[in-house]
Amino acid sequence: MDVRRLQRDGLLKDNTAYSWYWKDASGTVMAAIDVRALRGGVQFDYRLNDEHEVSECVQTTTTACNYGGERIWFVCPCCDRRCAIVYLSRQVACRTCQKFRYPSQSEDETDATWREQRILEEKLGGSGYWKKPKGMHQVTFNRMHSRIIALESKRVQLLGASYRHLFGDNKF
């Protein structure tokens, strides 16, 4: 649940109650949540897997914005930190407390080099043969091209280290 969206849609006014339903292709309700905005918090009532019922009130707080107004936040029930999004699972909590990770936080060094190279290649018009895109400075193109070569070199070193770890220093 994103408190910014709830605020933008006017769903955080006192005693505002609403329900959300998720349906499959045939129209059968797969999941539902009841939400009630209270003074200083939001009440969530939902059921997980037809067995675990959750009813949790998440407090809200505000901070002043630099140019006037205020920004609303959820207060994570687990760690008491401000967060814009709480995740609904067996408990309502922030991303950190739920131990959710972004894919980049779970990848190894080799995967990180592949991801960075794909991003650079997209900026240069795709994989394989690269030519400087129109409007790009030559210095920028050279820097990106050099970085791709460095990433490929790093992957070769990582692959060599993996083979040495698996097979020792035996020569093939």
How does this model look, in words?
By secondary structure, the chain is α+β, with helices and mostly antiparallel strands. The chain folds into two domains: 3-98, no CATH class; 103-167, no CATH class. It is built from five helices and eight strands; from the N terminus they run H-E-E-E-E-E-E-E-E-H-H-H-H. The protein has helices at 3-8, 95-98, 103-106, 109-123, 138-167, and strands at 17-23, 29-38, 41-48, 52-64, 70-75, 82-83, 87-88, 92-93. The strands form two sheets. It has a six-stranded antiparallel β-sheet. A two-stranded antiparallel sheet has the order 7-8. Helix 4 runs antiparallel to helix 5. The radius of gyration is 25 Å and the shape is elongated. The model has no long low-confidence stretch (mean pLDDT 89).
Q: Main sheet: which strands, in order across?
A: 1-2-3-4-5-6
Helices, by number, come to: 5
Mean pLDDT: 89
Q: Largest sheet at a glance?
A: 6 strands, antiparallel
How far do the termini sit from each other? Answer: 56 Å
| Poorly predicted ranges | none
Radius of gyration: 25 Å
Strand content: 25-35%
| Count of domains | 2
| SSE order, one letter for each helix or strand | HEEEEEEEEHHHH
Please state the structural category.
alpha+beta
Query: What proportion of the residues is helical, as a percent range?
Result: 25-40%
The total beta strand count reads: 8
Overall 3D form = elongated
Write the layout of secondary structure elements.
Elements: H1 3-8, E1 17-23, E2 29-38, E3 41-48, E4 52-64, E5 70-75, E6 82-83, E7 87-88, E8 92-93, H2 95-98, H3 103-106, H4 109-123, H5 138-167
